Inverse folding.
């Protein structure tokens, strides 16, 4: 999190957040897990929306992503946020 720059970073677990590449449907209690993951995703969407409405930039990184690539992406967003930050505060 970068509160002064209003940049929020989330690391989402592939299973819990329904990663399109790695989320596999559980064979036992399939309905339970489908609902659970759908709820998580709905909450993620809701969180994104609230933050964006409040002027935050939201970055979501899947746990399977290369940390170096994710770090580069975060850095780029933070640098951009710094440039756009008003100087008089
Ligand atoms: Zn994944």
């Amino acid at each position: 999190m970068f509160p002064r720059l209003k940049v929020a970073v989330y690391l989402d677990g592939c299973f819990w957040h329904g990663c399109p590449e790695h989320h596999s449907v559980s064979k036992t209690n399939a309905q339970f897990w489908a609902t659970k993951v759908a709820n998580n995703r709905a909450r993620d969407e809701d969180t994104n929306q609230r933050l964006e409405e409040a002027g935050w930039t939201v970055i979501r990184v899947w746990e399977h992503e290369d940390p170096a690539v994710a770090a580069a992406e975060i850095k780029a967003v933070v640098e951009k946020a710094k440039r756009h930050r008003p100087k008089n505060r």
